[in-house]
Amino acid sequence: MLLGGLGLLLIGMSLMTEGLKLAAGSALRDILARWTSNRVRGLLSGFGITTLVQSSSAVTVATIGFANANLLSLQQAVWVIFGSNVGTTMTGWIVALVGFKLNVEAFALPLVGFGVMLKISGERSRRAAFGQALVGFGLLFLGIGVLKETFDAFGEHMTLPILEGPALLTTGVYVLAGVLLTTVMQSSSAALVVALSAAEGGMIPLAAAAAVVIGANLGTTTTALIAVWGATPTAKRVALSHVAFNIVTATVAITILQPMLLLVEWLREAFALPAAPATTLAVFHSAFNVLGVLLMWPVADRMIAFLLRRFQSQEEVESRPKFLDTTSLGLPYIAGEALANEVGRVSTIARGAVLSALSVEGASAQTMEREQHIARSLIGAIGSYSAALGRMELPEAIATLLPSYLRSAQQSASVIEIAQQMIAVQAELGELSDERLDEPVQVFRREAVRVIEAVGTGQAETDPAQTDVMIGELERVYEEAKLAALHEGVSGRLGVLQMDALLRYLALSRRAAKQLAKAARRLTVIRTALDAGQTAPGAHEGKNADDEGFEALSDRT
Description:
Layout: H1 2-24, H2 27-34, H3 39-53, H4 56-68, H5 74-87, H6 90-99, H7 104-122, H8 126-157, H9 167-185, H10 188-200, H11 206-219, H12 221-227, H13 233-255, H14 257-270, H15 277-296, H16 300-308, H17 314-319, H18 332-358, H19 365-390, H20 396-399, H21 402-429, H22 435-457, H23 459-462, H24 464-491, H25 496-532, H26 550-556
Helix pairs in contact: 1-8, 3-5, 4-5, 4-13, 5-13, 5-15, 6-10, 6-15, 7-8, 8-10, 9-10, 9-11, 10-11, 10-15, 11-13, 11-15, 12-13, 13-15, 13-16, 14-15, 18-19, 18-21, 18-22, 18-25, 19-21, 21-25, 22-24, 22-25, 24-25
């Protein structure tokens, strides 16, 4: 009976959780992604979703998944996890107030029958998913009924041996039992039902059952740790926040177990709840999880800051500004130099991206996506720092430079987007088998690389006249390569689609090189103005075609 009850409990919980997740459709994603703007909303979201799907593990894994995909920040995910821990206590209330009070068969069997009818008639619709959840709900209560009957029968004739020894040690053994139950069954709710059933049947004393409940809560961390194997740093931090919450909560609950049980008994009487071990344990489970939230509330920001310094990927390190320091905001010219250096970093990233795209081997789309993410993070930091600097009392020379910083950074960042397009077009282009095109295309590539390397060595800044000469040469060889491609296409030696891809690749390469040169020239104007303490020429001028789109890019960032 014990094995059969556990089987019904686990399959019922699995069907109910999966059915509710399917019935909810995209609601889980929408709530987690949109309703977590602050810690209170994050708590309520985690609590509400866990109450709905009756699985803190499912919500924890989903939250880690969203953090893994950068849809949730660490701050948002942490509070969803904390709320989920409180939400999982609702299982105990359902079992204590409903599962042990009703004629289980009269209640559960109709649910199973009605749920099956919905499942059969709904095929793959949301109705079928809801029917599956009803079947799971019915089987869950059948399992509770079997477990209750089993433990009642055991309790009439025997109890588990009371462990001798120090109270803390014996409590630890029961906590470990709860951890093992949850780990084996991969459901803290199932372990909780077993503890409630054993206590209700008189097999274990109330304090021991409370320790098992603490262990069941702690055992949920195993699911989170399994879920983040090979995940992103953010996902690992989310999992560690879950572990930290449960360890802190469990430690405090174990330390003050007896006083908490007295408080719980008082609360049960104050709210006129039934005098049953299961009800007392449900109150206890909720109380120590709420206590955990209260304990974490004042230290959460420091914990998050600590976690942010752990598991750092190379991308995260490169995404952080190196030169922008808020202490420099009161020193306008130093702050201006810091901004110029950070803008220069964006230019360096863009230069590396387009050089990779110009190489014969090319670069992977994943690498380009990484470079773009780094550049966007830096532009966001540059924009925030510029806005903070703009609120200070500034000399006119610095105030009029601020738009130029942003335009130069945007020009460099747009080069990375162009490089991404070059990679995509290069995949369409494939290898050129026409030998007549090989020389003009290679000459063009070499000239584009020459311009870009001149930007990298600072020649574009120190010798703009020579840069203009190189750009003029780039235009000439571009026209020659373009005419060669058109000629080969007209003659039929080059397919029309391949010709189109080649023309787009040439145009994108030329545009990237010129855009980098313009960004470098603007940065030169900025540095010159900083050195001279003068207004940058053109700082008040309207945007030209090369500057358009920064606002849109800022919004995306």
